[in-house]
Amino acid sequence: MSENPQSASDVGAAAQRLDDVRKRMDQAVAKRGQGPAVELIAVSKGQGRERIKAALDAGQRVFGENYVQEAQEHWADLASTEGRPKLHLIGALQSNKAKEAVGLFDVIHSLDRAKLARALAKAMADQDRRPDLLIQVNTGEEPQKAGCLPGDLPELVRLTRDELGLPLVGLMCIPPENEESALHFAFLAKLAAGHGLGALSMGMSADYETAILFGATYVRVGTAIFGPRQPR
Ligand SMILES: *Cc1c(COP(=O)(O)O)cnc(C)c1O
């Protein structure tokens, strides 16, 4: 992957911003009160190695990627002294990449259709690896957006968890840009509770504190930690 040279001050800024995000998360958790632990996923898509290294050096051990191939490029040789960090796939997944995804990721947030569930089931059986799965729900029912429609969720949960016996742990959403995120977070939390699912992946740079107030267990934060991404 080609990347712009990044200055030392830029790299130092990533560590500083990471610290800042962690503090804000702690404040949101305190404000929320009793509830689940919240894990920060540092979204490293579109970022250069130096910034990612800076986050690793600052102790971050959980990263999110949107594309299988970019994740392979980023993480083939990037490791910390404690080994490879946990990798989460948060971007859309094609069924024909299920095998690679199962081999690389510890958690997959973007299951959204029956065909993909079946492809993941086969890949998990073949590789004897069982990454946790979350179903992405298109809570705004936006035609251009990935995710299972809320009305199709019961059947996809049944197929994934009951029929295929896959490790389904929760739900994920990306609210529409011009709507109040809080409404979508509350809706996703309600859907998850209705299916007895504990993990809630919601909240990005602009709204992770709100997501925590509504019960997020994973927040996915990119630019607030690393700065602007390089265009793909
Ligand atoms: C890129 C991306 C993020 C991170 O977005 P920021 O606004 O940079 O924090 C989070 N979730 C998903 C699904 C993404 O594609």
The strand line-up of the biggest sheet is 7-6-5-4-3-2-1-8
Q: Termini separation (Å)?
A: 10 Å
Which stretches of 5+ consecutive residues score pLDDT under 50? Answer: 1-5
Question: Helical region count?
Answer: 9
Percent of residues in beta strands: 15-25%
Report the count of strand segments.
8
Average pLDDT works out at: 93
Helix/sheet category: alpha/beta
The H/E string reads: HEHEHEHEHEHEHEHEH
Q: Main beta sheet: strand number and arrangement? A: 8 strands, parallel
State Rg. 17 Å
| Broad shape | globular
Heterogens: pyridoxal-5'-phosphate
Notes on the structure:
The protein is 42% helix and 15% strand. Helix 1 packs across helix 2. The protein has nine helices and eight strands. With 232 residues, it is of the alpha/beta class. An eight-stranded parallel beta sheet has the order 7-6-5-4-3-2-1-8. It has helices at residues 8-32, 49-57, 68-75, 98-104, 114-127, 153-163, 181-194, 208-213, 223-226; strands at residues 39-43, 62-65, 86-89, 107-111, 132-136, 168-172, 199-201, 218-221. Helix 2 links the parallel strand 1 (39-43) and strand 2. The radius of gyration is 17 Å and the shape is globular. The longest helix has 25 residues, at 8-32. It binds pyridoxal-5'-phosphate (PLP).
Task: For the structure shown, list the relevant keywords.
232 residues; globular; 9 helices; binds pyridoxal-5'-phosphate; disordered N terminus
Summary?
The protein has about 230 residues and is an alpha/beta fold.
Which SSEs are present, and which pair or pack?
Blueprint: H1 8-32, E1 39-43, H2 49-57, E2 62-65, H3 68-75, E3 86-89, H4 98-104, E4 107-111, H5 114-127, E5 132-136, H6 153-163, E6 168-172, H7 181-194, E7 199-201, H8 208-213, E8 218-221, H9 223-226
Helix pairs in contact: 1-2, 4-5
The structure holds pyridoxal-5'-phosphate.
